[in-house]
Amino acid sequence: MLEASPAQSSPPLFVETGEQVPLDGILDVAMLRSGLAAIAERDSSGGASTAARAEVLALLKDAVRHGRTRIEAMLFEDGGGLLCAQRLASLQDAVIREIHDFALRHVFPSANLSSGERMAILAVGGYGRGTLAPGSDIDLLFLLPYKQTALGEQVAEYLLYLLWDMGFKVGHATRTVDECIRLALSDFTIRTSILERWLIAGAEDLLIELGRRFEAEVVEGTGEEFIAAKLGERSVRHAKTGNTRYLVEPNVKEGKGGLRDLNTLFWIAKYHYRVNSTEALVEAGVFSRREARLFHKAEDFLWAVRCHMHFVTGKAEERLSFDLQPEIAARLGYNAHPGLKDVERFMKHYFLIAKDVGDLTRIFCAALEEQQAKTAPGLRGFVRTLRNRARKIPGTLAFHVDNNRINVAGPDVFRDDPVNLIRIFRLAALHKLEYHPDALKLIRRSIRLVNSDLRNNSEANSLFLDVLTDPTDPELHLRRMNEVGVLGRFIPDFGKIVAMMQFNMYHHYTVDEHLLRSIAVLSRLERGDLADEVPMSTGFIGALKDRTPLYVALLLHDVAKGRPVDHSIAGARIARQLCPRLGLDERETELVAWLIEDHLVMSMTAQQRDLNDRKTILDFAERVRTLDRLKLLTVLTVCDIRAVGPGVWNGWKGQLLRTLYMETEPTLTGGFTQSSRGERIKRARAALAERLAAWPAPERETYLDLHYPNYFLTAPIEDQVRHAEFIRTARAEQPLSTSVRTDKFHEVTEIMVLAPDHPRLLSLLAGACAGAGANIADAQIFTMSDGRALDVMVLNREFAADEDEIRRAQRICDNIAKLLQGREMPANLLAHRKPLRKVSLFPVKPRVSVDNDLSNQLSVIEVEGLDRPGLLSDVTGAISDLNLDIRSAHISTYGEKVVDVFYVTDLIGTKITSETRIERIEARLTRVLESAEGEMSSSVVMSSPRAFGIPHR
Questions:
Q1: 694: in domain
Q2: CA angle 836-837-838, nearest 5°?
Q3: Domain containing 913: what range?
Q4: CA dist., res. 948 & res. 953, Å (int)
Q5: Domain-embedded: residue 12
Q6: Domain termination residue (choose one: 382, 412, 445)
Q7: Rounded to 5 degrees, what angle do the CA atoms 907, 816, 654 make?
Q8: pLDDT tens readout for residues 64-99
Q9: What's the CATH number where 79 sits?
Q10: Where is the ACT domain (predicted)?
């Protein structure tokens, strides 16, 4: 009979302790073994019966449950993420080994095993590296000498079924050594899997044979193709997960800067350098000891985060989503600081670690490149040497061009002249060069030279401004400057927001990433790349006198985030201190400070105010003061919104900004404008008429007369065309029409509704959406001259497939018809909406205000609170219950926060001036915002189906 599996003779790859992690306090192997033996002794078939198997399964489940509970407790005690992963792998090893030995001793006993019946059970892939997360797949290779035997098949099947019944996800393959070699030669995934192998149980000589042949027949002479394959896989993986390490909901395993990037480094290291540890990479001169420590720190932190995520969710959850972030932050012991929540401090640490992973990747690739250049043989090496021959850069001896990348001339260029730490970026921008990894590596190692002397050096500041305002690609050079740490040290206030995330659903990136992306948008505007999308801003940019202040303002507009005071005011204060250092004069400094302090004013006015109300335009003009500042603010606002994240900018917002600009321009110029309001309306009507040229002329003119003038100034032309086709197809005798359109890219669905106008129309439409659990991201309301209203509801998408999303939208349209025909009561419809999550991740303090100064004729109600399905329905229903008439509504959603503004009058058309009534309005709407489930709009009652003139068909 085969003896028990031998003790491991070598450590798993990349576990640098030299031995397996001990299982003391986690699993008593001797007790487990004796328990299994006792089951076999009690069973008449020696452990092969169904009853015995059930006992074995229960014993193993209990052992694993106890072991994992202890490992989780130890993770809290010592905080060792990598140690936790190694403990989990060791626990898994022990369990598999005991199952294997039990099967051979008791379930399938055989006294005389032939050489062909030998089998080795190997851990491969991530498990073969000696690490596992709680939810990781268990990747096993059943290694055979020749072909599968009956005994081997029985043992493998017994083991696999027990593991599956225990709840493990097991990936497995059964192969001979010959098959492993043949498949590894043709498949890089299999090659990588075998590269990380670890004997769990069985015949050690098979493992040794596989290793010998794998080294000689697969690895030898194939380093370059393996490196190319792994780096190519990494690029594809990064593209799938967002291609940035600064997404606010990162993928800890697969995302850029995550564990897989570290794994890729080690796969390449083992394959190319024949090493199993970072210490060996230090000895090979690839990493310094500091960089090796950085590698261990990053790996340990990422493993801790990943293990905690799996323990919390009970599954292989790799995306660090908003709902997980607060709990992981608490588990890791982060505390809140003034201006930063505990979760924001945790995520800042996460992104700094991800940044370190990127630095290590660049350093490693530089070493690979250098070694490959040295070892390239014969003519190939000579050609490579010619191609990479250094080329001088005019005006400097400190740097040269190496294969179209700027590189340092020697190890002392920064120590000899610290200004070179800024000059290198200026030269790269001037000559349109990328950066050699050796240069970036030396910059990082020289970062302490960026001190107060360099910050106050006038030449360094002038060079920095040249980089910031580079006409070709300032984002690239600022990004490299940020990645190596120079930008944050040269501008310490910028350094404070590096890797800082804002715990909300509106901002898609960290603060520093958002600022760099806004610079990229401005640069694209200057180059004319966005002329079709934002023609007005593109037109402004070429004639701007204050190009440098605009770039500085964009770089700094969010630099004071994370402080207990308003970031716009604090940012302006920072600008007044920093701009003179950068070389800006007093006028430019004040302009930058103003742009930062008011950088949100234009977007808020455009989206949250009635642009047809003259008071709105006058108040905004008072803030802006001059036409030049209006143009600058317009450009800055466009860049800011477009850099927030995918889908945030849209044609509707662009049209609102254009309208606000065009309405404000004559006020600032004393009545002079390139085109009066009347001319713009006439031009907009003509543009729509041209797009509807295929219509009969009388029909076209009748349609154009349906809309009030403000429609032509606020709705984008593409939307106007769609509206026209929709309204045209709606028959006059059919008072209610609906249309659905999905938008996968922006993850929204649009529902257009054409119905008789009515004071409660918006409330009922919102209620119909809420009844289906739909969340309204935006709403556009247009009243027409024939007494009908065109309302456009933009909903957050719920389903991935368009077919499912369209079906949901049709249910909403059915709800609308039922409500407007009086066949359904709003309270009944809303009672069936989906329940909300009990715990709110984003506490947004409700705020309600009634303002009589924002409009001369109307009262303005502004409500701000946590968004939820049904909120707009509840708010508008409450406004109707308060006997108020909504004249215009402006719906804005910023991630989890909603800011809705309603221009209202009482039922006789006057402002709300009574303090008592204002207090009652504010109290009622505050209750709506504070209610987790809303007030169900129970008082919204249709007195008659004929109230909307929509018959019940």
A1: no
A2: 110
A3: 730-948
A4: 14
A5: no
A6: 382
A7: 75
A8: 999 999 999 999 999 999 999 999 999 999 999 999
A9: 3.30.460.10
A10: 750-825, 860-939
